[in-house]
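Quarterly update from the structural biology core.
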Amino acid sequence: MRLVGLAPLILLFGCAPTQAGDASSGPDGAAQEASGRRCHSPVSTRLIAVEPGRVYIRTRTGQALELTGEDVCIQAASNGAISLRPAVGPATANVCIGDEARLGIVSHGSGRRSCNVRVARVVPNAEIDELERRRSP
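Predicted structure, tokenized:
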């Protein structure tokens, strides 16, 4: 069968353009063309904030992403180091808005764990600034 030869193509086009008006076009005006999905490298992510059911991370390129998932698992991220990888495919493959992913969490309290999350959206910097102001004493 020739299905084995199709695997690289499926991985390559996993973040192919979708119809206009998807979740990747945001109100911040910094969204790419409405006809494409925004994809990001999961390498070197860092935690910005944790809220019930949501984690905000910053990618290596400076983009802030909102991840949504099960609150019980996500709350452990507030006290640990995080990593992000696609739910399917190589760990270094890009994750796109709307994709399922795995959030790895390493903390002293809960050890090593992994959460199923969805990459919900790119978060505008103004919204991130507001999150950081709410966390400050």
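The longest strand covers residues 111-123.
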